[in-house]
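for ur thesis appendix - ABC transporter ATP-binding protein. copy paste whatever u need, i formatted it the way the template wanted (i think)
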Amino acid sequence: MLQLDKIHISFGAQHIVRGVSLQLEAGEIGCLLGPSGCGKTTLLRAIAGFQGLQLGTITMANECVSSANQLTPPEQRGIGMVFQDFALFPHLTVAENISFGMRKASAAERRARVDELLTRIGLPGYQKRYPHELSGGQQQRIALARALAPKPRLLLLDEPFSSLDAELRERLAVEVRELLKQEQITALLVTHDQQEAFAMADKAGVMYQGELLQWETPYQLYHQPRHQLVADFIGHGVLLQGTVNASGSLASPLGMLEHPSLLTVPDGTPVSFLVRPDDIVPDANSRLRGRIKARGFRGAHNLYSVQLNSGIEVLTLSPSHEQMNVGDEVGLRPEFDHLVVFAADHCELPGFHDQAPLVRPFTPPVSTAPPAQPLPTSPKAKSA
Ligand SMILES: Nc1ncnc2c1ncn2[C@@H]1O[C@H](COP(=O)(O)OP(=O)(O)OP(=O)(O)O)[C@@H](O)[C@H]1O
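the 3d part is after this line
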């Protein structure tokens, strides 16, 4: 339905979008994540037709709508849009707001569509209300209904929930996904909020300095990040450094990790690997020891930052009814499902997802272990 093929957008000498390719099948919902200024809105504006391309193509339903020498006007693209500040018309009723874009439809068709959408967004009977008589969440639902009323081919949403509080945002994200699926609308959402992206998206991607680093399912972004920056941006975790040795083991601050895929990596290769909080569990009997530096309450779990005796910090989760305190000494045991390993170019080494590594018991001393590797440049803007 929507295909971007190696698109480039520059403002003067500034390259804002660089070689972005992505695809959405009909009815799929995509989400673009990334730090402020990475080019998300510019990309959305290009898809809407408000912004031209220097290179590449944008295709909708097998028809090229943008290229270096073509720009189909926005009104001919059949696109609906919802923006954070996409205010409702204050002097129009809810029904008039929703049917605003249905000029070609008959009065009866408009009425039927308004009734249908109000029911779907859980606001039946609100036809005669005015925007000031609605809560922020209700207004945003109406803005969505207005964008959906003319049955667009594609819906673009730019931070549509960012002015709402976190709880409402999460609820709306789920509701909006259901609505889009019912309406079989293809949609692309830009957000800062990865929980929102996870709740809504079939496909998601992380942009960084104009590049789309990965475009896959939310599950893959979290569990199989293809780039260190994606690993850092999505979810919690730390990147630790290790060195592959001739016997196919990874000498690491957590001990020796063994995995068949390491046998294909040359002896002495420095790598980094991702350690999520659920990859490490507290274990009083473990020889891997550390001290709790910080504790964050996460409802069912506490998230602990633990400084190992080697000086390296890792994160671990523990049920919140088994509370440990800052300053406590703890034992930790690595418990990996799979490994995510990055080479020196920050890109993922394939082959580590199929099975868990064998962790050989940790043997001190670790004082010579390399420190946690600083990321190239941290794009952190986390909400998870
Ligand atoms: N018309 C323009 N002329 C020049 N520079 C622009 C223009 N529009 C955007 N930019 C620049 O392009 C970069 C990307 O902006 P964009 O709004 O796409 O980022 P974003 O990822 O959506 O950020 P945010 O999450 O903060 O909204 C920014 O550095 C911005 O200043």
